[in-house]
Amino acid sequence: MKVLLLALGGALGANARYWLGLWVAGWAGTRFPWATLLINVSGSFLLGFLASAFDRWRPSPSPSSEALTLLVLVGLLGGYTTFSTFALESLRLWHEPSWIRSLGYLTLSATAGLLAASLGVASARLLSDTLS
């Protein structure tokens, strides 16, 4: 059952990444990896928000909470975000004549990802406190 949950979540996340990536690339172009940046930053926010929400609204582990974690946090968001593409795009930018864009991409990705995850956690806490 765990394998099926991971596979389902991963398939959904990978499809979301693919289609959103195509849309962003069509809109913003491909000279800079805006699609991967948007996907990884939004995935960081969602992971921070949902992990915090799951911790607050299901304080004790159970089979159903483990299944939800596997499906959504590990499968869906693991399939949605992409560290390997981020690494490859950083390397490709590095080898361009304007390698400074690679440093900008690395800095922007790490900073925005951490800020988005922090904002996700804070948002879940605020929502939890508001609903309590």
UniProtKB/TrEMBL annotation:
Signal peptide span: none
Regulation: Na(+) is not transported, but it plays an essential structural role and its presence is essential for fluoride channel function.
GO biological process: cellular detoxification of fluoride
GO function term, MF aspect, one: fluoride channel activity
Regions that span the bilayer: 32-54, 66-83, 103-127
Keyword Metal-binding tagged: yes
Catalytic activity: fluoride(in) = fluoride(out)
NCBIfam families the UniProt entry points to: crcB (TIGR00494)
Similarity comment: family membership: Belongs to the fluoride channel Fluc/FEX (TC 1.A.43) family.
Protein name, as recorded: Fluoride-specific ion channel FluC
Species the sequence originates in: Tautonia sociabilis
Biological classification of the source: Bacteria, Pseudomonadati, Planctomycetota, Planctomycetia, Isosphaerales
